[in-house]
């Protein structure tokens, strides 16, 4: 996919595409943002963050992960089908993963502050586990390759996050 082809398809000039998006990566970012971070996303994130109970917050985080991964999966497949080259997608994915890792710190901080984080886990290890499990690879393997329903993934993820990160209730 070239900027010329994008401009032609949009019926605008090439300089207009560059003025609005700056680069092909800017276009990819806009497409992903549109598909992943709409009003549904904002609503589910607010809902997840509003939980005061640590377990409920983790379970709601699983719902956020499902929503993001479902939308992202469709958007990435669309871009691959449109001929977007892998290096551009890989660069964008690395940027998004760094941002996701930073944003997820608040979940672990709330667990730690509530006294519900497993005592054998420090913040860093807990954050790494949370980041890995809510990532696209786990979703892709279970939903995309093993054909789990997205709802089944969400339920499994919620249970797994609670079991791996929280102190046990006896």
Question: Secondary-structure map with pairings?
Answer:
Blueprint: H1 3-10, H2 14-21, H3 24-36, H4 39-49, H5 54-81, H6 86-103, H7 105-113, H8 123-133, H9 136-145, H10 150-165
Helix pairs in contact: 1-2, 3-5, 3-6, 4-5, 5-10, 7-8, 8-10
Descriptive notes:
The chain has 170 residues and is an all-alpha fold. The chain has one domain. It has ten helices and no strands. The chain has helices at residues 3-10, 14-21, 24-36, 39-49, 54-81, 86-103, 105-113, 123-133, 136-145, 150-165. Helix 1 (3-10) packs across helix 2, helix 4 runs antiparallel to helix 5 and helix 8 (123-133) runs antiparallel to helix 10 (150-165). The chain starts with a helix and ends in a 5-residue tail after the last helix.
Short descriptors:
170 residues, mainly alpha, 10 helices, elongated
Overall helicity: over 70%
The beta-strand count equals 0
**What shape does the CA trace take?**
elongated
What is the H/E string?
A: HHHHHHHHHH
Which structural class matches the secondary elements? mainly alpha
Number of domains: 1
The Cα radius of gyration reads 18 Å
Beta-strand residue fraction:
under 5%
Largest sheet: none
Q: Determine the number of helices (DSSP H or I, runs of at least 4 residues).
A: 10
Nearest-integer average pLDDT: 83
> Which stretches are low in confidence, meaning pLDDT under 50 for 5 or more residues running?
none
Distance between the termini: 57 Å
């Amino acid at each position: 996919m070239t900027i010329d082809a994008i401009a032609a398809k949009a019926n605008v000039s090439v300089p207009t595409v560059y003025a609005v998006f700056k680069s092909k990566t800017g276009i990819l970012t806009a497409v992903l943002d549109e598909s992943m971070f709409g009003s549904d996303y904002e609503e589910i994130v607010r809902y997840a963050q509003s939980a005061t109970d640590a377990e409920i917050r983790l379970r709601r985080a699983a719902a956020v992960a499902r929503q993001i991964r479902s939308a992202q999966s469709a958007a990435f497949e669309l871009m691959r089908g449109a001929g977007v080259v892998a290096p551009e997608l890989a660069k964008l994915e690395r940027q998004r993963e760094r941002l996701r890792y930073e944003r997820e710190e608040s979940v672990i901080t709330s667990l730690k502050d509530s006294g519900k984080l497993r005592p054998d886990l420090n913040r860093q290890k807990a954050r790494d586990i949370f980041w890995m499990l809510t990532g696209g690879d786990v979703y892709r393997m279970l939903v995309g390759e093993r054909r789990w329903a997205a709802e089944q993934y969400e339920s499994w993820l919620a249970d797994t996050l609670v079991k791996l990160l929280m102190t046990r209730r006896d």
